[in-house]
Amino acid sequence: MSILRPGSDAVRRFFEAPPGHFFLFGPRGTGKSSWLSARYRDALVLNLLLPGEARRLAARPESLADVLAGQAGVRDVVIDEVQRVPALLSVVHHLMESSPGPRFILTGSSARKLRAAGVDLLAGRAVVRRLHPFMAAELGARFDLAAALTTGLVPLVWSAADTADTLSAYIDLYVREEVQMEGLVRDVGAFARFLEAVSFSHSGLLNMSAVARECEVERKTVERYVELLEDLLLSVRVPVFARRAKRDLVAHSRFFLFDAGVFRALRPRGPLDRPQEIEGAALEGLVFQHLRSWCDYRGRGDTLHFWRTRHGLEVDFVLYGESTFAAVEVKNADRVRPEDLRGLRAFGEDYPEAVRILLHRGPRRERIAGVWCLPVEEALIALTPGRRLEEAWGSEG
Question: What H or E segment, with its residue span, contains residue 167?
Answer without folding.
Answer: helix 163-173
